[in-house]
Design brief:
The protein is an alpha/beta fold. The chain contains ten helices and 16 strands. It binds adenosine monophosphate and magnesium ion.
Length: 347
């Protein structure tokens, strides 16, 4: 199959109409959102959604997020409640995915047989218009091959999906850089299943009863079933082994200089450290306090490390709170909990 890679903005109506026609005909389209690039199909079309799993090599028990263009369109596909509309008022459109009981119109292939559905309303104008033009909700996971870091540029999607899908819409680099915050809600409580740009602290401002699933920060125990199936898979992993250095216990610069002299490794460091690190295999992540920029660059840098053909990557262990929790969650899973120094790790 030939894959068209087309540069678009929200005014590219002609191309967006063509993409919408592909969605309506049961085909897959790669498209930008504010979080990461998505691989979209008509959420009402079970066959089209099964193609997503094939294209990604995604395990069939990992459900898809369904994207809508207006918060109230959740009525079509799920049983909403007051808390949903409180959250929608504050955070939608935006990087928040809400899991609610599903309506029958959503095929069980989309939800991997679960009786709930994950709903998100993206703020990215290209994504929003694509959904509108399609006239159906769009089921879309991240547009990477399963196990690879999520794509934050159209080039990443092309690298993974060239020859597999007919069209990729290039809307430039994603603003956020990690996937949406995923929560499961009841009438009066929220469980945070995957941290993202909408933080635990922000959710607390809307609802008193917010808890964090242990799978966000801890390794699953043997045989343990996570609330969100995606949590059990090793994700976001580059080919090289990633190690996280707990810099409260280990002097980062001396440690990575020692390792760089011994092995073929890359170093993901803060801009402030660049001058003191003695290797040319550098992955500068941003300033120490600029968490937004670090988050935005993370997946791009993990992909770049693979291009460098290194066998190991050393990076700082992120803080486990606030805006940093999303990075902590992605990195701790990408390194399979290999932390150097401190009480956190095994090494
Ligand atoms: P992705 O689309 O690749 O960003 O992944 C979507 C995430 O949402 C995965 O971790 C899924 O397991 C999770 N998810 C989607 N639908 C549900 C659901 N109905 N219940 C629990 N988790 C879900
Ligand atoms: Mg994904």
């Amino acid at each position: 199959m030939k894959t068209e890679l087309l540069r678009v903005d929200e005014r590219s109506d002609e191309i967006l109409q063509r993409a919408a026609e592909l969605i309506k005909s049961g085909a897959l389209v790669g498209f930008p959102t504010e979080t990461v690039y998505g691989l979209g199909a008509n959420a009402f079309d079970a066959m089209a959604c099964l193609e997503i799993f094939k294209a990604k090599g995604r395990p069939a028990d990992n459900p898809l997020i369904v994207h809508i263009s207006k918060p109230e369109d959740a009525e079509r596909i799920s049983y909403t409640n007051e808390l949903y509309y409180k959250l929608a008022k504050r955070f939608m459109p935006g990087a928040l995915t809400v899991i609610m009981p599903k309506k029958d119109i959503i095929p069980s292939e989309v939800t991997a047989g679960l009786d709930s559905v994950a709903v998100r309303c993206p703020v990215n104008k290209i994504a929003n218009r694509l959904i509108d033009f399609s006239g159906v909700p769009i089921a879309a996971p991240s547009a990477n091959r399963s196990g690879k870091p999520s794509p934050t540029s159209a080039k990443h999607v092309f690298d993974d999906m060239n020859g597999i899908i007919p069209m990729i819409l290039d809307g430039g680099d994603c603003d956020v850089g990690v996937e949406s915050t995923v929560i499961k809600i009841s009438e009066d409580s929220i469980i945070l299943l995957r941290p993202g740009a909408i933080t635990f602290e922000m959710l607390k401002e809307v609802c008193d009863n917010v808890s964090i699933s242990s799978a966000v920060t801890e390794e699953l125990k043997e045989g343990e079933k996570p609330l969100s199936p995606g949590m059990k898979y090793k994700h976001y992993a580059p080919n090289a082994q990633l190690y996280l250095v707990d810099d409260e216990y280990v002097d980062f610069v001396s440690f990575v200089n020692e390792m760089s002299a011994k092995e073929n490794c890359a170093v993901m460091c803060y801009d402030e450290e660049l001058a003191n690190i003695k290797t040319d295999k550098l992955l500068p992540v941003g300033k120490k306090n600029d968490i937004k920029k670090q988050t935005k660059r993370l997946f791009m840098l993990l992909r770049k490390a693979d291009d460098m053909k290194v066998t190991a990557i050393y990076a700082h262990l992120p803080q486990k709170s606030g805006e940093s929790l999303a990075m902590y969650n992605r990195m701790i899973r990408a390194c399979a909990h290999r932390v150097i120094g401190g009480t956190n790790g095994k090494i």
